[in-house]
Amino acid sequence: MSVNRVLELMKEKAIEFVDFRFVDLSGRAHHISLPATEVEAETFVNGVAFDGSSIPGFRGIEESDMVMMPDTNSCYVDPFTSHATLIIMCNIHTPDGERYDRDPRSIAEKAEQFLQTAGVGTAAYFAPESEFFIFDDVRYETSMNSSSFFVDSEEAAWNTNRKEEGGNLGFKIPTKGGYVPVAPVDTQQDLRSEICRLLQDAGLRVERHHHEVATAGQGEINFRFDTLRKTADNLLTYKYIVHNTARQFGKVATFMPKPLFGDNGSGMHVHQSIFDGDTPLFYEKGGYANLSEMALHYIGGILHHAPALLAITNPSTNSFKRLVPGYEAPVNLVFSKGNRSAAIRIPVAAVTPKGCRIEFRTPDSTANPYLAFAAMLMAGLDGIKRKLDPRALGYGPFDKNIYELSDAEKHEIRSVPGTMEEALAALEADHEFLLDGGVFSKDFINNYINFKRGEAKSVAIRIHPQEYSLYFDC
User: Fold this and answer.
1) 247 marked ligand binding residue
2) Looking at the DSSP assignment, which residues form a beta bridge with residue 89?
3) How far apart are CA 232 and CA 375, in angstroms?
4) Which one, 117, 283, 319, 395, has least CB within 10 Å?
5) Which family does the record claim for this protein (predicted)?
6) What are phi and psi of 408, to 5 degrees?
């Protein structure tokens, strides 16, 4: 979309404010709003200034001036503001006009450029399945003398005996019993449908929505695949609309991977493929699951680098509460067709040549999508470059229910790191593949590791209520 077209759109929609947004290391959006009367063609040339030192993991106070440069292809009208507001995503530049190398959006674009300069294909396509919970109440506290959290949902299994005004109407969802029931068990049909309507208004192509496996309001909405950076933009739009629609309904949404103990967590399964123009490069009729050798090498790259990748695709301490056996969590570093117990699943139902793809099931939505998609692409491209054959490396194919294997059989299967610190150590030891083509920089990797280690330490040094259960009477 040209600058002139954006200015015309502002007039057509009677826009009162323009909301300029950028994304930080953790994947959270930040914004500055300008009155529409202050937005001119020059705004898109000069950008919008902001203080980079106030964003964790960005700049020191002595070099804080930074500039948001609007991307005119990322516009949509905010459905939640009382005053008509146009949202525009931005790239981050330094005052001298250089792209900021810690800007996640910049890294995503460099990964797309590297794919082309490497001569592998013209575009990589991504489609995340970002699961979430919608609760009716959330409370939490961590202080010197207290640590607790509490969530509640009208659907929750623990509320079958709750006394409610007007009576308890039953139809609660059992633990692990929430996969696609109809109403009145599924109480959130209208809420998810409203989310879908708003996503479509914002330009996303919604494919379907449904209740997910866990009790207490777990849901999933799938939107159409797109190129790497565009899909990352779409995921930020998706999370913004999910969060704010839930709030309009008097509820609260979270993409936290494991908000409940004893039930399934929320993942972000990422479907991905590479095309050369209109030609799908992951398809080869007659191959395993109709995969090409390129696709297998791509899989080899992701599984080989998976311990390091998880520091970016599962970048929270809570991520590793989800990645435990027994909760449909993809902890096993193998690939398989149609097998949800493998880290990489090859979809085989109703798949066309252009729909031939791989699905990396381990990531979750605490990931910054620009960084996560870029890192996965770089790992896959490294596998293609080095011709890493996952079959020769012992990664499958593994067409069994891995959860039901004996301990001896499981011992032969490589697993994901068990903690965030283990994943960060793996990234520290294995990140050269991310540096190819200058996509990620050494400075970015070091800064990112230190930033995330700070988060891990803040959790590790705090006292957990379970420690009182175990040790108070010692």
Assistant:
1) no
2) 21
3) 13
4) 117
5) Belongs to the glutamine synthetase family.
6) -65, -40
Query: What does the alpha-carbon distance between residue 216 and residue 264 come to, in Å, rounded to a whole number?
Result: 11
Could you tell me if 343 and 306 are in contact, meaning their C-beta atoms sit under 8 angstroms apart? yes
- In the chain, count of helices (H) and strands (E)? 14, 18
Q: Tell me how far apart the alpha carbons of residues 447 and 375 are, in angstroms, rounded to a whole number.
A: 16
Q: Is 212 a catalytic residue?
A: yes
133 bridge partner residues: 218, 254
What's the pLDDT at 432? 97
- Cα separation, 65 vs 71, in Å, equals 20
pLDDT per position as a tens digit, 427-462: 999 999 999 999 999 999 999 999 999 999 999 999
- pLDDT at residue 379 above 70? yes
- Residues 132 and 218: beta-carbon distance below 8 Å: yes
Question: Is 340 an active-site residue?
Answer: yes
Indicate if 129 belongs to the active site: yes
Tens of pLDDT, residues 157-185: 999 998 887 888 889 999 999 999 999 99
Q: Helices 306-313 and 420-429: crossing angle, nearest 10°?
A: 120
Cβ atoms of residues 315 and 424 within 8 Å: no
387-397: average pLDDT = 93
Domains of the chain by start residue, with CATH: 3-100 (3.10.20.70), 123-463 (3.30.590.10)
Flag whether 50 is marked binding: no
DSSP class of 100? P
Structure tokens at 188: 């959130």
For 255-341, where are the alpha helices, taking DSSP H only? 293-304, 306-313, 319-322
- State the chain's mean pLDDT as an integer: 93
Q: What average pLDDT does this structure show over 196-224?
A: 97
- Active-site residue, 269 included: yes
d(CA 165, CA 300): 56
Distance from C-alpha of 437 to C-alpha of 435, rounded to nearest angstrom = 6
Q: Are strands 85-93 and 17-23 parallel, antiparallel or unpaired?
A: parallel
pTM of the model: 0.95
The verdict on whether 361 is a catalytic residue reads yes
pLDDT (0 to 100) of residue 409: 74
pLDDT of 52 reads 85
User: Residue 207, annotated ligand binder?
Assistant: yes
Cα separation, 91 vs 100, whole angstroms = 8
Q: Is 273 annotated as a binding residue?
A: yes
Q: Is 112 labeled as catalytic in the residue annotation?
A: no
Of the candidates 155, 212, 233, 284, the residue annotated as catalytic is 212
Torsion of CA 194, 366, 58, 381, to 10 degrees: -110
